[in-house]
Structures are given as C-alpha cells and as structure tokens.
Amino acid sequence: MKLKKTLVATAAVVLATAGYVAYSTRATEAEIRELEAAVMEAAPPAVAGISDNALAELPAPVQRYFAFVFPDGIGAAPRWVTFEQAGDFRRPRTEGFQPTTARQVIATAAPDLVFSADTPLWGPIWATAYDAFIGGQMEMGARLLSTVSVMHETSSPELDRISLRRWLLETPVNPYTLLPGGLVRWEAMNDDEARAVVEAHGYSASLVATFDARGALVSLHAEQDGDLTTPYHGSGEHVSRGDYRLVDGVRIPISFEVSRMADGVRYPFWTGSITNIDFVADDLGAGES
Questions:
Q1: pLDDT, mean over the chain
Q2: Considering the entire predicted model, what is its pTM?
Q3: Digit-coded pLDDT (tens) for 207-236
Q4: Given a cut of 50, is residue 75 above it in pLDDT?
Q5: d(CA 195, CA 189)
Q6: CB 207 within 8 Å of CB 200
Q7: Strand 137-144 relative to strand 217-221, pairing
Q8: pLDDT tier at 198, thresholds 50, 70, 90
Q9: Rounded distance, CA 196 to CA 189, Å?
Q10: Most buried one in 166, 217, 221, 277, CB count within 10 A?
C-alpha cells in the first residue's frame, strides 16, 4: 500500500511538472512571437528605385556583389525577412556543439531583429534562447525547458551596440539592406574588401566584407577583438557565408559559420544552413524558398 501511494504521488508530481513545462513553453513561444510582431509592425518601407548612378558610386567589389546577387535587376525590396536555420551551436564558455534549430525575423530599413533557438543540453533537457533588438533596445534571455531563466540581459550601451552589429552581420541574408540609400554606408578598401557601416539610435557599427571573384560576399568580420569571457556570444565577430542560391530573384547564402574572434583566431559557435526563407513586402506578400 505504501509503495502504491508513493507511485501515485510520484506520478502526480511528474504530471504536474509536465503540465507546467508545457504551459511555460507555450508562454515563451507567445512572448517570442510578440517580439517578432513588433519588428514586423514597426518595419518601415525599404528604399525603392535605386539609380544606376548610386550603384556606380559604390566601391568596385560592392558593385560586383550587387550584380551577382541581383542577376535580373533589383526588384521591390521586402519590409522584412523571416528565415529558419538548422545546425550546431556551442554555448558560451563551452567546447561541445549541440544540434540546434533557430528562427529569425529581420527588418530591411530598420536595424530591428528577433532571434530564437532551441537546443538540447542533457538528455531530455533543452534550452530556449532568444535575442531581440527593437527600437535601439536589446533584450537577451535563455530558459531551461522554456521555464527556468538561466540568463537574462537587458539594454545597455555595450549590448545595444553589439546588437546593431548583429543586425549588420545578418544582412547578407537580405541583400536589399545593403543597397545605397538605406541604413548601410560602404567605404572603399581594396579590390576584394569594403567596409560596411551602419549608424542608428546613437550607435555605430562596422564590419569588413570580403568578396570572391564572382562578387559573392563570403565573409564579414569585425576589426576589433571580441571579449571571449562574456556569458553570451553576442553577435560574434566573424561570419562566413556560402552556398548561394537564387530565391525570389535574389541570390542568398544558405550556409553560414558564426565565430567569436580575438588575436587573429576564430572560435566558431554557430554553424549550419538556412532551411526556409520568406521575403515579405507590402505589395508582394511572402515568397517561400
């Protein structure tokens, strides 16, 4: 009888815990969808009608890049892009990688984004992480089982600046963000590199873009070392891009590897590929890869 009571009590606890985790998972997902909706609702129209003169004034490798990614000409720019990713992720200050799926919503004409990801930790235990940068304010969090908060960071000058760089790091997925007249300014460097600069909300961020002979943007990197001791990866200081494919008239890189970088050494922490992408514009609706 005592064993039976113990089993019943244990089962009740398990069911109650499972119910609470399920409720918390739905609540966390709802919070993330609300953040995504905030990006979409606030997204301004992108710059339209890029002139040949504006393109001709760009550094030579950037001109080559736009000819490569817009093979049939520059169409109507989306207000935002939504894409999903799958790959392997390494948590800060650890060495092992875990399979991870992620989703991002990124505005074209504003430096706003939301990133969310799920990754297993130990056995049935998983973590949900998210980063949001909206209106110049960032928020970052991670929850075990979508329930127990293990990391939560809010807006600060350092993190807001990192988040602006994060938006810039993701721009090759949405080449419309890099066109003249938008948020990004290009500075000439050499035949294969150019500096991309974005200024918003009182902050500035820049990354050096490297282009191959075709014009494909194959990497972006920061010119300053990263702080490898932080409890978060932030934007990373280097991203490699490859496997360009034509989606809705624009070539985008499907594969990626995001790394921290210091003293000339790269430490990858997020590597994988885009599994689905939607470009969303006022008059075009969504197109799916």
A1: 86
A2: 0.85
A3: 999 999 999 999 999 999 998 888 777 778
A4: yes
A5: 7
A6: no
A7: unpaired
A8: very high
A9: 10
A10: 217
* Spatial distance between the Cα atoms of 263 and 255, rounded to a whole number of angstroms: 25
- Rounded to whole angstroms, the Cα distance separating 220 from 171 reads 10
For 74, phi then psi, to 5°, come to: -90, 115
Instruction: Copy the structure tokens of residue 6.
Output: 């113990």
Asked if residues 118 and 89 have their Cβ atoms less than 8 Å apart, the reply is no
Mind giving me the DSSP string for the chain? -HHHHHHHHHHHHHHHHHHHHHHHHHHHHHHHHHHHHHHHHHPPPPP----HHHHHTS-HHHHHHHHHH-TT---PPPSEEEEEEEEEEE-TT---EEEEEEEEEEESSS--EEEEEEEEEETTEEEEEEEEEETTEEEEEEEETTTEEEEEEE--HHHHHHHHHHHHHHGGGSGGGGSTTSSEEEEE-SSSEEEEEEEETTEEEEEEEEE-TT--EEEEE-SS---TTSSS-TT-SEEEEEEEEEETTEEEEEEEEEEEEETTEEEEEEEEEEEEEEEEETTTEEEE-
**Region for residue 40 given its phi and psi (left: phi exceeds 0; alpha: psi -120 to 50; beta: otherwise):** alpha
- Give the list of residues 6+ apart from residue 21 with CB closer than 8 angstroms, or none: 145, 146, 147
- Residue spans of the domains in the chain: they are 2-288
